[in-house]
Amino acid sequence: MMLPALIVIPLLAALVACLGGRTRANWPRRVTVGALLLDALILAELTRPVPAIGLAPGWLAHFDAPWIPQLGISLRLDMDGLSLLLLWLTLALTLASVAISWREVTAHVGFFHVCLLATTAGIIGVFLATDLFLFFFFWEIMLVPMYFLVAIWGHERRVHAAIKFFLFTQGSGLLMLLAIFALAFVHRQSTGEFTFDYFKLLHTPMSSGTGMLLMLGFFIAFAVKLPVVPFHSWLPDTHTQAPTAGSVLLAGILLKTGAYGLIRFTIPLFPDAAHRFTPIALALGVLGILYGAVLAIGQTDMKRLVAYSSVSHLGFVLLGIFAWNTLALQGAVIQMIAHGISTGALFILVGSVQDRLHTRDLRHLGGLWHGAPRFSAVFLFFAIASLGLPGLGNFVGEFLTLLGTWRVSPPAAVLGAVGLVMAAVYALLLVARALLGPANPQAVMGELSGRHRVTMAAMIVAIVALGVYPQPVIDMASPSLLHLGPLSARAAPLLHLASRQDQP
Amino acid sequence: MGAVAPANAILLAAILFGLGLAGVLIRRNLIFMLMSIEVMLNATGLAFVAGGARWGQADGQVMFLLVLTLAAAEISVGLALILLLQTRRPTLDSDVGNRLKG
Amino acid sequence: MNALFTLAAIVAVISTTMVVTRTVAVHALLYLVVSLLAVATVFFTLGAAFAAALEVIIYAGAIMILFVFVVMMLNLDRDDADRENTWLTPRVWAGPALLSAVLAGELLYAGIAGHGTIVAAREVGPVQVGLALFGPYLLAVELASLLLLAGLISAYHLGRDSGRGG
Amino acid sequence: MQQLLALVPALPLLAAVLLMLAATRIGTNGVRILGVGSVALSALLACRIAVAQIGAGWAVQPFDVTLWHWMRIGDFAPDVTLHLDGLSLVMMLVITVIGFLIHLYASAYLDGDPGYARFFACMNLFVAAMLTLVLANDLLLLYVGWEGVGLCSYLLIGFWYDDPANGRAARKAFIVTRVGDTALISGLFLLATSFGTLSIPSLMQHATTSWPIGTAMPTLAAFLLLGGALGKSAQLPLQTWLVDAMAGPTPVSALIHAATMVTAGVYLIARTHVLFALAPDALLVTGLIGAATLLLSGASALVQTDIKRVLAYSTISQIGYMFLALGVGAWDAAIFHLVTHAFFKALLFLAAGAVILRMHHEQDITRMGGLRTAMPGVFVVFAIGSASLAALPLVTAGFYSKEAILGGAWDSGPSGRLLWCAGVVGAFLTALYIFRLLFIVFLGEQHRHPHGVTGWRIGVPLGVLAILAVVGGGLQTPALLGGIAIMPGILGGVFGSASHEGALALLPLVLASLVPLAGIALAWRWYGGGLASRFETQFTGLLLRGWDFDRAYDRMIVQPLMWLVRVNHHDIVDSFYEGLGKLAQRTHAGLSLSENGRVRWYAGWLAAGSVAALAIAVLS
């Protein structure tokens, strides 16, 4: 019963926040924090070393209830280590979003927190659902409140951005819906049972052409979310226009649902098709890394720059997922978490610049260090984390990913490493243009407020911990990734051949 | 006395219809447009009557009667509208009344 | 009979052309009455005496009277006629006229090519029409009466507004 | 005692963190004590460990300290393990001791700077990162230190952030070295994929057992590691960042050039010398690059007018010596030269800093001159440093280390003889440019009067370093001159017992010792009277700009990239999607034109539609 509670609590809290938010501005905030903490408590209870009895190895919790039995649709939720990690990330970043919006959001406070909680609930659902229909349901649920977050509390071109976001994700989601239905029908043709149950749909026999088409349906949906070049173009606009909390949620968690989907659904459901797709996926990953970096170098809008850097970083995740070995997959998972923290933090910092100086334009900024050395030091820290300095979380992710990728395709790994050089260029340019230089009378900002400071400190600790001792994360994720073990073993002979040819 | 071929009446109807349509399209004054519509309706009625005459059935004239009713109703509302428009706006130019523009 | 038909048809076409091209509303209206009377004659030659009578009474009589009233109430004068002239340049009417001509041509073509043998018209008397009206078409008649009622009410409503001057 | 090894890098790291967090609360004195004290403690600890580990015949007892398991993914299990052997011991001592002297000096040099605490935080972090680099048992941990060093150099070069030029220099340093790092990390991928581990000892063992000499794999791996080393050690073709790095405060330059950072590349190759020994091609290239760098930057140093730029080119040139030594397999000579270079280069930089400080931050040597009388102490130590750099025979440390390198080159076959020639020419250039600098700055007419006096916190490090620059040669002397073998003893455990000294022929030794004298003599002839621009040819501009590498890179790499960035500023892919949107809008606009509210048009369209429909019905 704990799994549905994780989803229901934020929704109930949203209701409460909405009802009581008219009169007292702090009421929705407190309710939101309370609900998130309650969720965290439940999650802490679920984070135990011994899995519950009666579950398949690797799975930590399970819930099942009929929904539309005639169509084989049920309310099925399952949690494994990967979901658990991402749920922790979700709760932490949502909490951070609430904390940093405490002062920044003053309009429609109640509805803001309703949207925040509803998005969170949708995301939690996405990470837990193991019925494909239910998964799609949550997948769509998280979009709508996110749309409102951008469209109501965003910046100058918020409506344009929100619509773009919605169209991209909705359009790709429909592709996935088609693929889900097609998969269910294919499954019925071969077994006679009409079901959306993830575990039953695994190992559905199908022709290679069908498999490729369905795989692409899923892949594109997740690729848009991840985002993979050339489906990335909603992201810079949306990130730039979203309010700080929205950017944090988007960058920190929403993008991860794409990666999660690839790991959880695309590859296990269509291993052969996905495997045949590997060269293209690797190329897309590398393209994303380099293209995102090139674009990030050229930006003068801080938020846009960070957004393009996300495109670059998530290219590593795609590489890791399609490298077909545990190292790279672990790297991808760590990169997901580290990126969530570091980019989330950068968005928070940029957001506070925007909030105080009312500009994100690097051409008007500079010399912030003079007025706000602590703020600048923190900014510098996360910029450096983002360029992948060893000892911090992002490096572990990138290193493992590229190491795993090297086994499949050394050129892809080398090009990915070139992306690291470009990451240095854009991160340092960001630092130089925003923080360094002579004192700028138009850009004097005070230090961070108390809530910001605590949030930042927690994020710094998290990213350092991830960098120097990632083992807990690795241990937690490894059973989920071992699910893919047999696949990579199956893939191994082929890949071995490929890598033989590739290696000099 | 040679009987008239209804086919010829149909041809006449076609010509009258065309003329009426030309009137609707060419004229900008609402009064003239209404008149042209009358011509078109009349042409339609003629076609019905000719058809009825061809088969010796009453249905053609029944239809004409209905068309007539329609024309009467339409014209009464249309003229009332014209009067209303005239008092609101001192022109009967149909091109000016394009508030419904999308 | 054929000669009468031909004559009536020619009158109808000419007067209708005049309706479309006149600049003074009353002139056009008179031509329209002529056209309607010509069509009534055509009805007669087709053996539809009842329709011919209705055409004269209701169309040429009642409806045209409505028009006359309205045109009088509109106070159209010389200026309006001049304006009509300025609106009737070849540039304006060439296109629509061509379009209408094409449509009429198509209809004519369909009318000529459509049938094989030419059959004479057969007379249909008022009795037949009356039986049909209150037999199989009873519902249609009732609907038509409702339509007229609706027209009456709306015309009254609109006219009342216009009477107050909007 | 062995467990305390972790404290050596941990102390500066801890101090750096404390300085960052509590800078405002502890005051200048607190910062000074914390910043300098941590490195001092670290140095003491390093000495204590050295004493404990060095046994008979100067042999070092190697040991490992595993702090924690970094990660375990299947077979891939890098640990955070510190490894102490002769090589890392020498490096650790150099870093901590020289580092401490530089810190002490900096505490005076930076007095009154608003970023005092930030400066010491970065300096301490720098030392900590470098210590991590040299003590790492695992290439991955080494990479942590490697990049950490790069980061600190970035922070320190751009320390005076008010001037955007400093920021540019700092960025350049970081990015250029990162280009090399890409090669290094690719090498790491290659090694880890081949052997499933990155632990250096087991890597070396695997490599010797499974890779035959001269085959593709070890060569490729060695070249990739070499790429990383070239970047960090500012060798051709990645040397351009180091000269610009002079934008940082002088103690930073001293730290980068003497104790940390640029020596990292030399250390890396020495550390993985087993792998390089398997790849003769890579070794040859290493030597050639070293020789080329040595000559090219030595020539550039001849014409520079900025005191720090002369020294910067000199560093590049001297690191070239070390690469040359590595290229001929004279590992211990390279490390020996690294040590003596650390002594005299730190001395030169700090002395130059003292001059700069007292000349109101004036760095142009054409505006100096005749400082001998005003600053006799600094003159003496500068002269000692210059002599040591120029390898004045018998009395300086530089002489012995340079002889070790040239001797090693002489002994290693025909290609070695070629490199030997380059080394001798380089020695001549070295003597010429450094004494040119000395004569111009300290002799001749006095243009400006220096102000103030040189305090003890500046004087003591200079004195200590001057002594070291003289007696440092006593660590290893040729057989002809006593055959002291402290360095070979310490390093023997790592490199095996090298025995160059017995084979060293007298002729090259004498020849090589006379060359610096010739250089000094020429410098005296040209510049003995003080400022005189004798060495002016049409090449001067080219030399001044460091052979135009910067311009070439700008044309070939930076500008194309920036062009791409500019062209693609608005994301071509996005313009496709925006184009779709525009198309929809246009279509909408077009269609709404038809919706114009004019009833005649509607009727017209209706008629047109009827015409079309009828045409289909009738004509078909």
UniProtKB/TrEMBL annotation, chain A:
The lineage of its organism: Bacteria, Pseudomonadati, Pseudomonadota, Alphaproteobacteria, Acetobacterales. GO terms for cellular component: endomembrane system; membrane. It comes from the Bacteria. InterPro entries: NADH_Q_OxRdtase_chainM/4, NADH_UbQ_OxRdtase, ND/Mrp_TM. This is NADH-quinone oxidoreductase subunit M. Residues 129-416 form the NADH:quinone oxidoreductase/Mrp antiporter transmembrane domain. Keywords: Membrane, Transmembrane, Transmembrane helix. It comes from Lichenicoccus roseus. One of its GO terms (molecular function) is NADH dehydrogenase (ubiquinone) activity. Belongs to the complex I subunit 4 family.
UniProtKB/TrEMBL annotation, chain B:
It is an enzyme of class 7 (translocase). The chain crosses the membrane at residues 6-26, 31-50, 62-85. Its EC number is 7.1.1.-. One of its GO terms (cellular component) is NADH dehydrogenase complex. The keyword Cell membrane applies. Keywords: Cell membrane, Membrane, NAD, Oxidoreductase, Quinone, Translocase, Transmembrane, Transmembrane helix, Transport, Ubiquinone. It catalyses: a quinone + NADH + 5 H(+)(in) = a quinol + NAD(+) + 4 H(+)(out). It is found in: Cell membrane; Membrane. GO terms for molecular function: NADH dehydrogenase (quinone) (non-electrogenic) activity; quinone binding. It is a multi-pass membrane protein. The keyword RNA-binding does not apply. It comes from the Bacteria. Pfam families: Oxidored_q2. One of its GO terms (biological process) is ATP synthesis coupled electron transport. NDH-1 is composed of 14 different subunits. Subunits NuoA, H, J, K, L, M, N constitute the membrane sector of the complex. Belongs to the complex I subunit 4L family. NDH-1 shuttles electrons from NADH, via FMN and iron-sulfur (Fe-S) centers, to quinones in the respiratory chain. The immediate electron acceptor for the enzyme in this species is believed to be ubiquinone. Couples the redox reaction to proton translocation (for every two electrons transferred, four hydrogen ions are translocated across the cytoplasmic membrane), and thus conserves the redox energy in a proton gradient. HAMAP family: NDH1_NuoK. This is NADH-quinone oxidoreductase subunit K. The gene is nuoK.
From TrEMBL, chain C:
The chain crosses the membrane at residues 29-49, 56-76, 96-119, 131-156. It comes from the Bacteria. It is found in: Cell membrane. Keywords: Cell membrane, Membrane, NAD, Oxidoreductase, Quinone, Translocase, Transmembrane, Transmembrane helix. Belongs to the complex I subunit 6 family. InterPro entries: NADH_UbQ/plastoQ_OxRdtase_su6, Nuo/plastoQ_OxRdtase_6_NuoJ. NDH-1 shuttles electrons from NADH, via FMN and iron-sulfur (Fe-S) centers, to quinones in the respiratory chain. Couples the redox reaction to proton translocation (for every two electrons transferred, four hydrogen ions are translocated across the cytoplasmic membrane), and thus conserves the redox energy in a proton gradient. Its EC number is 7.1.1.-. This is NADH-quinone oxidoreductase subunit J. Composed of 13 different subunits. Subunits NuoA, H, J, K, L, M, N constitute the membrane sector of the complex. GO terms for cellular component: plasma membrane. It is a multi-pass membrane protein. It catalyses: a quinone + NADH + 5 H(+)(in) = a quinol + NAD(+) + 4 H(+)(out). GO terms for molecular function: NADH dehydrogenase (ubiquinone) activity; oxidoreductase activity; quinone binding. Pfam families: Oxidored_q3. PANTHER family: NADH-UBIQUINONE OXIDOREDUCTASE CHAIN 6 (PTHR33269).
From TrEMBL, chain D:
The chain crosses the membrane at residues 6-26, 33-60, 80-104, 116-135, 141-161, 182-204, 210-231, 252-270, 282-303, 310-328, 334-357, 378-400, 420-443, 455-473, 479-498, 505-527, 601-619. It is found in: Endomembrane system; Membrane. Keywords: Membrane, Transmembrane, Transmembrane helix. One of its GO terms (biological process) is electron transport coupled proton transport. Pfam families: Proton_antipo_M, Proton_antipo_N. It is a multi-pass membrane protein. GO terms for molecular function: NADH dehydrogenase (ubiquinone) activity; NADH dehydrogenase activity. It comes from the Bacteria. Residues 136-430 form the NADH:quinone oxidoreductase/Mrp antiporter transmembrane domain. Residues 70-120 form the NADH-Ubiquinone oxidoreductase (complex I) chain 5 N-terminal domain. GO terms for cellular component: endomembrane system; membrane. PANTHER family: NADH-UBIQUINONE OXIDOREDUCTASE CHAIN 5. This is NADH-quinone oxidoreductase subunit L. The gene is nuoL.
